[in-house]
Amino acid sequence: MASKARAEFITPANYDEHLELLKDCDLVIEAIAERMDWKLGLYEKVAPHLGPQTIFATNTSGLSINKLAEGCPASMRPRFCGIHFFNPPRYMHLVEIIPCATSDAEMLDQLEAFLATTLGKGVVRAKDTPNFVANRIGVYSMLACIRNAEKFGIRFDVVDDLTGPRLGRPKSATFRTADVVGLDTFAHVVKTMQDTLPNDPWHDLFQSPEWLQKLIAAGALGAKTKGGIYKKEGKTKLVLDPAKGEYVEANQKGDDAVKELLKIKDPGKRLLKLRESKNAEAQFLWACFRDVFHYIAYHLDSVADNARDVDLAIRWGFGWNEGPFETWQAAGWKQVAEWVKADIEAGQTIGQAELPAWVFERDGVHQPEGSYSAGKNALVPRSTLDVYQRQLFPARLVGEAEPVYGETVFENEGLRAWTSGDGVLVLSILSKAHAIGPAVIEGINQSLDIAEAQYKGVVIWSPDDVFSVGADLSSMLPAFMAGDWGQIEAMIANFQKLSMRLRYSQVPTVAATRGYVFGGGCEFAMHCDRVVAHLESYVGLVEVGVGLLPGGGGTKEFALRAAQEAKGDVLAALKDRYMAIATANVAKSAEEAKDIGFFRNADVIVFNQYELLYVAKQQALALAESGYRAPLKVKGFPVAGRNGAASIKGQLVNMLEGGFISKHDFHIGALIADIICGGDVEAGTLVDEEWILKLEREGFMSLLKNEKTQERIAYMLQNNKPLRN
To answer: Which of 210, 359, 571, 709 is in Cβ range 3.0-4.6 Å of 644 for a Cys bridge?
Structure first.
């Protein structure tokens, strides 16, 4: 769950006592075991209790939707369809809607809009064929990989080293994915293909290998049983060696020469080098690509409406950066087609079916006008449903038109400010991981000057999966090496001034966050008038990881928010926020970010990442249209003072003596306590924001001069992970 508190809103129910509750449900999804007779028996039991408008759907991963519909009363069939989520549903973007012959068209459109906006899903409408789109092709890809690994003698751990991120695919790669899914579940999907696709030219591939059957029989089902293809003995990771029939240490990686080939940026050259290489691992990789290309071309007509649905289904359901048709097209459609044809004729492919004629009549399947449909022999444009008007920049496929991110208003090396003519100025940070250095700070300041003169509002948004990892520490290195502490302090002061300017700008400011929202990026978001956050925003003030403290206004902001929320006891309101800074606690969702206090209750959470910019713009415009005025500056707020800091330090002493923190951790934690409690003043003293910002800046500089902190910063810059010293 995005927040543990959400569990309170679930109503537990069972089939014997609570079936009457179904009548008030808008949507009922059946997700019991993959047995047709069990499902039909359940439908008969629940049908009398469903409301007259209830949509009834099945989450089957492969059974026929039309056959299941026949088990529903006639009155229910217009409201019946398949809704196939991918596991884990929170993180996997794909949902397949599978209509049956009687599904009402308007109902399907309403359902797609609900899935896209309310649940944040990427929807593909699939045909009622075995395993639908993603599992049909994704599982075939895994089976082909397994067959080719056996053919070329490639160990399972080497396969996973080669077929994961090196190919733009998840870390779980091939065999680890099977373990995560569950070997019994994987085998069931394979069995469905075996039973329901007798005429498929690849039918002999649709069977579980003997080693897989033995693992399942032994109860080694993968991650859920803590052992499958991989398992651990103590700290040693083991992998199955099917040739030996036993586990061996999982310590082998792919050949360095092959990994160098995978680094070739040109897709066509990369595939050519793999195909021409005599290295068994390279031949294995080419065979895996080729056999998938062969399969999707042959089955496009029967499996999906068009090539776009295939590529998006694999990207969203299996986590590939690029769909298989995209990879083929990027590598040179006609050349790759000739290579596949030659391998078919040479008897090297798994299946011997010929490539369909349309393959040789085209230069690719994705064009700016649409994606190719083999059934219609035409390019099919994207859906025109109203819900997709909210996706200003949807997932783009290779071959489609390059997105045009509006008209540039201002640009420097750190930031681009642009507009689409709607009165909103969008600020997109250009630096790597959107780290905030001097150019970014200068760019935002200049953009705010422009916005205050010409625009209704400002949105900070970038078209990738990171909002900002925080301050660019490397930008401080020249001044640090020269010992120019005054220059560094001026940089910190500029950072703080920009945070405050985002708060008190004459136009509304909105931070549109997703992915990492760390350090200075979090501080900027906290100071905007509104945050519009994708659910999967990972938010934290993480500066203690490099031996520092939040110096861009984050410590100040927590002190201020605690004072505003306190009911007579500032320290009580402050403690949890202090711990969030002192432990570099990262919220694992936008919901958690609200719980911890990084985001406010008024901030908006969006489930669909492709709707983030649209909603953020609407929030900025709504604030502007409602007569926006900059917030009045806080004249004074109470702090917990030296006594509050002493109370916090007492807890730190216990943690130090218990061995939970180091002496330097204690030093950092005590310094944060002093700052967040307002310094050496009495409890209840009224201070302003500038008072805390000054303490913040002084504390940051004192830590930066500390040898232990310098060790942490150097280690992070060199190894990209924190040092405990």
So the answer is: 571
Phi-psi map region of 335: left, alpha, beta (phi>0 left; psi -120 to 50 alpha): alpha
3-state class of 590 per DSSP? Answer: helix
pLDDT digits (tens, 9 = 90+) for 627-680: 999 999 999 999 999 999 999 999 999 999 999 999 999 999 999 999 999 999
Spatial distance between the Cα atoms of 67 and 84, rounded to a whole number of angstroms: 16
Name the pTM for this structure.
0.94
Burial classification of residue 59, based on how many CB atoms lie within 10 Å of its CB (0-12 exposed, 13-18 middle, 19 or more buried): middle
Q: How far is CA 317 from the centre of its chain?
A: 12
The tokens describing 314, both together, are 């694999």
The DSSP bridge pattern shows strands 457-460 and 407-411 to be unpaired
Asked if 722 contacts 546 with a C-beta cutoff of 8 angstroms, the reply is yes
Residues sharing a CB contact under 8 Å with residue 500, sequence separation 6 or more, in sequence order: 527, 553, 689, 693
pLDDT digits (tens, 9 = 90+) for 77-112: 999 999 999 988 999 999 999 999 999 999 999 999
CA 258, CA 510: separation in Å to the nearest integer? 46
167: which strand partners? none
**Residues 6 or more apart in contact with residue 332 via CB below 8 angstroms:** 267, 268
Q: In this predicted model, what pLDDT tens digit does every residue of 478-508 receive, in sequence order?
A: 888 888 999 999 999 999 999 999 999 999 9
